[in-house]
Amino acid sequence: MKPPRSLAIVGGGTAGWMAACLLQAAWGDACTITLIEDPDTPTIGVGEGSTPLLKRFFSRLGLCESDWMPACDATYKAGILFDGWSASEPDYFHPFFSALDLNTGDAFFHQADRRRRGAAVDARPADYFVAAQVAELGLAAAPANALPFEVDYGYHFDAGKLSALLRRHACGRGVRYRPVKLAAVHTDDQRITGLALADGTECKADFYLDCTGFRSLLLQQGLGVGFHPYTDALLNDAAVVLQDSVPLPGLPARTRSTALTAGWAWQIPLQQRTGYGYVYSRRFCAPDQAAAELRAHAGVGADHPVRHLQFPVGRVHQHWQGNCLAVGLSQGFVEPLEATALMLVQSTIELFIQAREVASFNAHINRLFDGVRDYIVGHYLLAGRNEPYWQAARDTRCASEALRALLTRWDQGQDLHSLLAGPLGSVYMRPSWYVLLAGLGRFPRVQCADNSVGDSARHQCEQLARAHFSDHRRWLAAQR
Ligand SMILES: Cc1cc2nc3c(=O)[nH]c(=O)nc-3n(C[C@H](O)[C@H](O)[C@H](O)COP(=O)(O)OP(=O)(O)OC[C@H]3O[C@@H](n4cnc5c(N)ncnc54)[C@H](O)[C@@H]3O)c2cc1C
Questions:
Q1: Catalytic center at which residues (predicted)?
Q2: What are the structural domains of the chain?
Q3: Which residue of 35, 209, 420, 422 lies most exposed, with the fewest beta carbons within 10 A?
Q4: Tens digit of pLDDT for each residue in 397-449?
């Protein structure tokens, strides 16, 4: 993509500032970037967990962890602990993987394959991956000493503080900030010709980024690009969130995702506080009921302040149309079970910088969104709870054909390789799918499974964790 001479970004949430930072880093002085934000329209203000891709974002900006983590109250994330989801297992851990797992990971695949073919062996993912031990032992997910390979890990952070930090970074490198409301979008033949601003001025640019959140003022409202909902496959459409000023003891480097009556709740450990949110379906749970259930789950009082949110799930048909690209919630949202939204933001911008052709770019981003959707839907199809919400969420008729084929092959003990080489594997690859299927106990019933291989793998992982990772809280304190 040849840089446009001028770019107007509308919206100053995490998506707008991530885009400003990455595009400024990529294009430098070749492009004048202006970010327009209505100071009276708040950002969504949630989004506190990441995938490992965010590491690359900061390195592209030339920021090391001690430059940004203390300012954003950030902690490390080794993966996600799912509890209460399965009928047969109390919990399972979806780790971020690394070369430290090579031996034990192979043992996991082997055990899981034997088990799905009926052998009485155990295949609990947490036994086979170092990240699970890192989280359990209260260690930082970043290795304490240099290793000859990358170790994948993500972060938790305060979303508001991250936006503020990115804004300072972008503005310090020449991005212009205009705190003014967008009043109207002028279009002609599927292109934006200018933006009318509430202060009576007009903004004209060669290219426009729609980062206006769920409103999608430029792409969906201005250019009329259609929305492809995921509501047939995903029931959740609301969340209630709260902050607890008490940080979690031991500061475990993991998000906890607990299944509740009509959805699931996250627990996110930050350095100075803990974030909670209950993502649920309004069809099965009233907002007051959800708030009460979340407060009880978080162990706070009945008058503890909460915030309610609603969201559409799905994606636009085209993310890039004419001279406009939507980034962030304006391009779509898959519910936050695997904390993938900022990963999709980053991927959209990185692919845009390299893009040669609009149609293939749009098809690629659609595959990423659909790939995330399928993996999230998988959690619900395999969950073992029996409340009405969970029964409805298990309805396989709404799953994509590829996902249904994957379940059939898994159940029949067949190889998954060719399926995961297609769209189903566009975001989540074999280790994640195996962890999901094994973790939620999609196996024939056996009596008294032998876990000698798992015990020995767990011991190895624990030794590796203790050898290569430091205490989480002490490691973060050293960054200050
Ligand atoms: C319940 C929930 C949990 C989530 N959890 C995660 C998570 O764990 N991990 C993750 O990666 N993501 C998560 N997300 C998604 C994440 O919050 C968003 O992807 C991220 O915050 C980016 O949002 P955004 O910048 O697109 O939109 P917003 O934050 O909504 O920003 C929109 C911007 O547009 C501006 N604007 C709006 N109208 C106008 C106007 N007329 N003129 C000028 N400016 C205007 C606003 O002022 C604001 O600056 C979650 C989302 C939800 C709903």
A1: 77
A2: 6-47+158-229+313-355 (3.50.50.60), 238-310 (no CATH)
A3: 422
A4: 889 999 999 999 999 999 999 999 988 999 999 999 999 999 999 999 888 88
Cβ atoms of residues 56 and 46 within 8 Å: no
Phi then psi dihedrals of residue 272, to 5 deg: -105, -10
The 10s digit of each residue's pLDDT in 268-297 is 999 999 999 999 999 999 999 999 999 999
pLDDT in tens, 153-179: 999 999 999 999 999 999 999 999 999
Amino acid at 50: S
* Integer angstrom CA distances of residue 437 from 5, 261, 417: 49, 22, 15
Number of H helices, E strands in the chain: 15, 23
How far apart CA 306 and CA 289 sit, in angstroms, is: 12
The residue written with tokens 């189903």 in the block is: 424
Nearest CA to 49 among 137, 162, 144? 162
- List pocket residues of ligand 1, CB cut-off 6 Å: 10-16, 36-38, 41, 43-44, 46-50, 159, 181-182, 211-213, 215, 217, 239, 277, 279, 309, 311, 328-330, 336, 339, 341-342
Q: Report the atom number in ligand 1 closest to the C-alpha of 12.
A: 49
CA of 247 to the centre of ligand 1 (A): 25
Residues 6+ apart with CB under 8 A from 38: 179, 180, 181, 182, 198
Report CA 31 to chain centroid distance, whole Å: 30
Condensed to tens digits (0 to 9), the pLDDT of residues 20-34 reads: 999 999 999 999 999
